[in-house]
Amino acid sequence: MNQAFEIGPVRVGGGQLFLIAGPCVIESEAHVRKMADAIQRITSDLGVPYIFKASYDKANRTSVKSFRGPGIKEGVAILRRLAESTGLPVLTDVHEPGHCEIVAQGVDVLQIPAFLCRQTDLLVAAAKTGRAINVKKGQFVAPWDMKHAVEKVTESGNDHVFLTERGTTFGYNNLVVDMRSLAIMRKLAPVVFDGTHSVQTPSAANGVSGGQPEFIPLLARAAVAAGVDGVFLEVHDNPAEAKSDGANALHLDKLKGVLEILLAVHGVVAG
């Protein structure tokens, strides 16, 4: 496994389970601040290192009519202000090489979406910002083939890279998680398990994606038992009204209980 590194106060790959969490998309500045404050209180109480996540633009929505977010200029400004006021490291998606330098001015981690994990120009541009890079494994990519994504980042001069598992396409409108992928990819870089996108049913709800959030705790427990470095959860205070991915989001009220169980499992595995 690649050497551990720090993202602000969060050590990635150092043996302590960390959390990436937040709403799928920036719905408003007030909402992301509300979510960041609520999640930070929970993680502080439990001693879980925490990176806030929200997207300024969801460029890969199922329908052209779907809400995408405030856009790069306003979104990055919101994320920068949130980072400054809370002290939290912040992660967001990038979809185009030309966006990377702009986004890097406001966040600590650039995330490569799963559908774009093979896009060389995007990976190289993200790497050259010097920010940490989270590459989500494509639903269509074998875990051992993620070595190429890692190499595109490291050979661009950036060794602060980690990988996230978010499920593999299983027929139409469904995903399945192969827990072997976690161990395979962990030989390449630190690994995070995405417990919310893994229960997504892509494009299965009449122009939007559905989901089975009741299985989030089950899969997250299994992933932590398999030995991941971190867990990624999209969390919302009202998933039924969320503007993106509400069908597979974890309700804020359930976050503390889920984390307590994951910490217990991690403690047993760590020995």
Automatic annotation (TrEMBL):
Keyword GTP-binding: no
E.C. numbers: 2.5.1.55
Domain called DAHP synthetase I/KDSA: residue spans: 10-262
UniProt xrefs under InterPro entries: Aldolase_TIM, DAHP1/KDSA, KDO8P_synthase
PANTHER family associated with the record: PHOSPHO-2-DEHYDRO-3-DEOXYHEPTONATE ALDOLASE
GO molecular function per UniProt: 3-deoxy-8-phosphooctulonate synthase activity
Name of the encoding gene: kdsA
Stated name of the protein: 2-dehydro-3-deoxyphosphooctonate aldolase
Assigned keywords, A-Z: Cytoplasm, Lipopolysaccharide biosynthesis, Transferase
Lineage: Bacteria, Pseudomonadati, Acidobacteriota, Terriglobia, Terriglobales
Locations listed in the record: Cytoplasm
